[in-house]
Automatic annotation (TrEMBL):
Belongs to the HD-ZIP homeobox family. Class III subfamily. Residues 14-78 form the Homeobox domain. The keyword Iron-sulfur does not apply. SUPFAM superfamilies: Bet v1-like, Homeodomain-like. Keywords: Coiled coil, Differentiation, DNA-binding, Homeobox, Nucleus, Transcription, Transcription regulation. Residues 16-79 bind DNA. It is found in: Nucleus. Residues 159-387 form the START domain. It comes from Brassica cretica. This is Homeobox domain-containing protein. The keyword Transcription regulation applies. InterPro entries: HD (IPR001356), HD-Zip_III (IPR044830), Homeodomain-like_sf (IPR009057), MEKHLA (IPR013978), START-like_dom_sf (IPR023393), START_lipid-bd_dom (IPR002913). Residues 74-108 form a coiled coil.
Length: 843
């Protein structure tokens, strides 16, 4: 191969400006070796190359420079061409997928048009004739009776020991599954927010007006069909709610396929309902067009087939024909169709919990989309597109996430066969305590170096009103000091050390501590984060010296995207030591918030933000679960579970500490729910205003300073009122009013805010002082404030133009105007700056 380069040299060198330089194969090979090591060598490196390689001695340094420029250009073009080919393949496959979806929708439209015409004809016929059809009815009834007495001979073959009967069931399940995956057997409706495209998750739809709940997804994955099937058949690896999958029988079928009898146990998502299980037949086969199919359906007396294992602690759910259709894609990869269709026996759970078992949206997020995301994640990890820090392999990090979720689910469910047993209560039923005396369930005896007797779990559930799950979990993650007790965290971390200290008393305020979040990994679509949290220790007295040591938590956070419909939000964490080995023992605790379907009611009863869910389950007459005057009632279920180790002589102390700690957390979340729930436009009772003498004095200074500087009364009247009245007026003011420190050597922080200001910043009075002015205002807002600051100091106030700021949750907030004024003390000295954001709203 000969490579040519045009070289234009200066006239004094005597070279022809149009001369081509020809490189020999040896020269090209030498240059390629250097390019592999350094694609962009410096001038000194190029001159050194000429000196070290005699075969390059007749080439000028400028020619070498041009060769490297051309080589980099060719490499860039090659990569771009490969990228465009990949995008083209994705677009072609997506186009094929959309065309098939269009054909399916056209068939559905034709079917609906036919049904509409048929119904019109029946209505017209019924209104125009009064023929007596009693004889026909008798004939039909007689025929149905004869059919019941002589059932289909095919069902007689469906015997537990008859492979032909099982194959008949499998073929029927296959046909019904394919009609759902690519046909019109189910009335599918596209799920909100799931738009197709080359980089999207795919096409996601949920069922409408069908028996049970169903979800369907179609997408592209860059793995071969056999590999996709292998991944998806390992259900516990991607379905976090799956406890176990046992294959009790395997029967070969035609076309190299198999029939499996599967017993699956699922976790219950809350403490308020029993877990579900499935007894199913799974059929794996190849179609004539090369597609790979894995379909599954429940076995029962109606379908025929063998009887499944007994389920004393589970409620037997039904899986309608579901599965995966995996079709090879031109140029590599696969087109994946997923269908999940189940009946979770919603009538067996309390009425307040039924929306959780009747929602196709929740099924889509927890099962259907989760399966597609998992395959896409594996595909991108295989191709090297996903980069992870900390030197950990992706499979190891995925295992950590699975172990955290599984440990939390085990704690929430407390299965007897895992060694859990209930512990006596203190008379109240709000907190459930369970103990496990089987340390082997938690990774072996080495897990508990000094607390060797067992594990205690304190758990509770509560109903939240009008609190977005994503917002609540983000708040719990970013403001741990609002609810956690550092002393209890230190006790939990002590189980990893050989010399723990005494069991602390759970304190309502906890210990102030700083947390540093160190990211480890995140899924491709950023719906789940794995991170290490460092809690910086502080000692405030000699007896607290054990708390002065930094602690580490491995934390899994998911579902913090508010735009996801039907998504579950979760924050799970476990103490780890500094070594953080791949097989590190984990004892997870945390929170799970699951949305319930919004429910409209005709009355306009007021809404309490949080409810004792136990009272709702017992049929309490409280009206907290009813709708607000706007007719919308957004509800979610929060489940809390915390695990602690203990030994024989500390068991009662740990139980008392755990019970009180979880009660404190419940109280903190009730206060947080009041603070972070959307409030503008609602009639929900606000938080009571602070009544300390300092707050009364500050409000009086704010009001007087505003009147002195602007000549206008802040509350619309110039009458002299009492301090309590002023405080109430400022606290309930419709605009956000915040006070900010006037520090010259540090970033200003907020020191006070009214109710609307707390709503805008999505925080509480306690956490307000952690929020700085610089992090709240955007760049134009900071510049506007700096330009107006001399005017504020001289004139006493200034108006800032409309702009955008950010809440403590990172949400953008727009406002029409901001007024800033100096707050003066009694002696006319500067106390702070006050901000009033007018007509604000979340973007």
């Amino acid at each position: 191969m000969m490579v040519h380069t045009m070289h234009r040299e200066s006239p004094d060198k005597g070279f022809d400006s149009g001369k081509y330089v020809r490189y020999t194969p040896e020269q090209v090979e030498a240059l390629e070796r250097v390019y592999t090591e350094c694609p962009k060598p410096s001038s000194l490196r190029r001159q050194q190359l000429i000196r070290e390689c005699p075969i390059l001695s007749n080439i000028e340094p400028k020619q070498i420079k041009v060769w490297f420029q051309n080589r980099r250009c060719r490499e860039k073009q090659r990569k771009e061409a490969a990228r465009l080919q990949t995008v083209n393949r994705k677009l072609n496959a997506m186009n094929k997928l959309l065309m098939e979806e269009n054909d399916r929708l056209q068939k559905q439209v034709s079917h609906l048009v036919y049904e509409n015409g048929h119904m019109k004809h029946q209505i017209h016929t019924a209104s125009g004739t009064t023929t007596d059809n009693s004889c026909d009815s008798v004939v039909v009834a007689s025929g149905q009776q004869h059919q019941q007495q002589n059932p289909n001979p095919q069902h007689l073959q469906r015997d537990a020991n008859n492979p032909a009967g099982l194959l008949s069931i499998a073929e029927e399940a296959l046909a019904e599954f394919l009609s759902k995956a690519t046909g019109t057997a189910v009335d599918w409706v596209q799920m909100i927010g799931m738009k197709p495209g080359p980089d999207s998750i795919g096409i996601v739809a949920i069922s409408r007006n069908c028996s049970g709940i169903a979800a369907r997804a179609c997408g592209l994955v860059s793995l071969e069909p056999m590999k996709v099937a292998e991944i998806l058949k390992d259900r516990p690896s991607w379905l976090r709610d799956c406890r176990s999958v046992d294959t009790l029988s395997l029967i070969p079928a035609g076309n190299g396929g198999t029939i499996e009898l599967i017993y699956t146990q699922m976790y219950a998502p809350t403490t308020l309902a029993a877990a579900r299980d499935f007894w199913t037949l799974r059929y794996t086969t190849c179609l004539e067009d090369g597609s790979y199919v894995v379909c599954e359906r429940s076995l029962s007396a109606a379908t025929g087939g063998p009887t499944g294992p007994p389920s004393s602690n589970f409620v037997r759910a039904e899986m309608r024909p579901s599965g995966f259709l995996i079709r090879p894609c031109d140029g590599g990869g696969s087109i994946l169709h997923i269908v999940d269709h189940v009946d979770l026996d919603a009538l067996s759970v309390p009425e307040v919990m039924r929306p959780l078992y009747e929602s196709s949206k929740i099924l889509a997020q927890k099962m259907t989309v989760a399966a597609l995301r998992h395959v896409r994640q594996i595909a991108q990890e295989t191709s090297g597109e996903v980069q992870y820090g900390g030197g950990r392999q992706p499979a190891v990090l995925r295992t950590f996430s699975q172990r955290l979720s599984r440990g939390f689910n085990d704690a929430v469910n407390g299965f007897v066969d895992d060694g859990w047993s209930p512990m006596g209560s203190d008379g109240a039923e709000d907190i459930t305590l369970m103990i496990n005396l089987s340390p082997g369930k938690f990774g072996g005896n080495s897990f508990l170096p000094s607390f060797g007797s067992g594990v205690l779990c304190a758990k509770a559930s509560m109903l939240l009103q009008n609190v977005p799950p994503a917002v609540l979990v983000r708040f719990l993650r970013e403001h741990r000091s609002e609810w956690a007790d550092y002393g209890v965290d230190a006790y939990a971390a002590a189980s990893l050390r050989a010399s723990p200290f005494a069991v602390p008393c759970a304190r309502a305020g906890g210990f102030p501590s700083n947390q540093v979040i160190l990211p480890l990994a995140q899924t491709v679509e950023h719906e789940e984060f794995l991170e290490v949290v460092r809690l910086e220790g502080h000692a405030y007295s000699p007896e607290d010296m054990g708390l002065a040591r930094d602690m580490y938590l491995l934390q899994l956070c998911s579902g913090v995207d508010e735009d996801v419909v039907g998504g579950c939000a979760q924050l799970v964490f476990a103490p780890i030591d500094e070594s953080f080995a791949d097989d590190a023992p984990l004892l997870p605790s945390g929170f799970r918030v699951i949305p319930l379907e919004p429910k409209s009611t005709p009355n306009g009863a007021s809404v309490n933000r949080t409810l004792d869910l136990a009272s709702a389950l017992e049929g309490s007459t409280r009206q907290g679960g009813e709708a607000d005057p706007n007719g919308c009632n957004f509800r979610s279920v929060l489940t809390i579970a915390f695990q602690f180790t203990f030994d024989n002589h500390t068991r009662d102390n740990v139980a008392s500490m755990a019970r009180q700690y979880v009660r404190n957390i419940v109280g903190s979340i009730q206060r947080l729910a009041l603070a972070i729930a959307p409030r503008p436009g609602s009639s929900i009772c606000p938080i009571s205003a602070p009544t300390s003498p300092e707050a009364l004095t500050l409000v009086r200074w704010i009001s007087r300073s505003y009147r002195v500087h602007t000549g206008v009364d802040l509350f619309g009247s110039d009458s002299q009122t009492s301090g309590d009245t002023l405080l109430h007026q400022l606290w309930s003011h419709t605009d956000a009013i915040l006070c900010c420190s006037m520090k010259t050597n540090a970033s200003p922080v907020f020191t006070f805010a009214n109710q609307t200001g707390l709503d805008m910043l999505e925080t509480t009075l306690l956490a307000l002082q952690d929020i700085t002015l610089d992090n709240t205002l955007d760049e134009p807002g900071r510049k506007a404030l700096c330009s107006e600051f001399p005017k504020i100091m001289q004139q006493g106030y200034a108006h800032l133009p409309a702009g955008v700021c950010a809440s403590s949750m990172g949400r953008l907030v727009s406002y029409e105007q901001a007024t800033v004024w100096k707050v003066l003390e009694e002696d006319e000295s500067n106390h702070c700056l006050a901000f009033m954001f007018v007509n604000w709203s979340f973007v």
